[in-house]
Amino acid sequence: MFTNKDYILASSSNSRYKILKNAGFPFKQLNPSCDEEKIKSKIKKKAISPVSLVKKLSYAKALSISKNKRYAEKKIIGCDTLVYLNNTIFDKAKTLEEAKWKIKKLSGKKHKIISGITICRNGKIIWQRSVSTDIKIRKLTNSQINLYLQKSGKQILQSVGCYQIESLGPNIIESIKGDFFNVMGLPLFDLLKYVSKNG
Q1: Greatest pairwise CA separation for the chain in angstroms
Q2: How far apart are CA 181 and CA 18, in angstroms?
Q3: Which DSSP string corresponds to the chain?
Q4: What does the alpha-carbon distance between residue 80 and residue 89 come to, in Å, rounded to a whole number?
Q5: How many C-beta atoms lie closer than 10 Å to residue 8's C-beta?
């Protein structure tokens, strides 16, 4: 549902920006001022579930903006997304070689895209959800993976699954079950349900 209230998206992600913009959602985008890798490393040492991990990271991002007095009364959206396969959490690949290894691991298998989304105001959580989408990657040969990475280029490193569903991703994806936008990095449907009830 449409709202006249301004939100703030605590994210540097182009994909998340486009999702909200295309949905006609009124918002301003600010980079979260937290050390995501440091927080992630600290949380992982506690061996928590992937759902707890994305919720905590989405909260950390939202809180980093919400604790600023300038934005205290605004609703701040934080979001974090990961890939989960065979009890293993996968983060974004940092190089094309790492992306190739990751796609090989996902090839022919089902995995989950899990996102945590949090809205903060005045430094407190006012709404939080986790959303899971099931993805199956086609069984791929080495040459198919190489061609896919060659055509995708380094922009593929922006995607947690090493596939951008809004771009060349459908070439390697066999099926999707769940929120399409969650695969892009933001569970839009759950967010819009919140907005329709709370403005």
Answers
A1: 53
A2: 11
A3: ---SS-EEEE---HHHHHHHHHTT--EEEE---S-HHHHHHHHHTTT--HHHHHHHHHHHHHHHHHTSGGGTTSEEEEEEEEEEETTEEE---SSHHHHHHHHHHHBT-EEEEEEEEEEEETTEEEEEEEEEEEEEEPP--HHHHHHHHHHHGGGGGGSTTS--TTTTGGGTEEEEES-HHHHHT--HHHHHHHHHHH-
A4: 13
A5: 21
- Residue 143, amino acid: S
Residue found under tokens 């407190």:
124
Give me the active site residues, please.
Answer: 80
Q: What is the mean pLDDT of each run of 10 residues along the chain (199 residues)?
A: 78 93 93 81 76 94 94 94 91 91 95 97 96 96 95 89 87 94 94 90
For residue 183, what are its two tokens?
């695969």
Identity of the residue numbered 80? D
Amino acid code (one letter) for 88: T
For the domain bounded by 7-198, which CATH number is listed?
3.90.950.10
* Cα 36 to Cα 68: distance, rounded to the nearest angstrom: 18
CA–CA gap between residue 69 and residue 198 (Å, rounded): 22
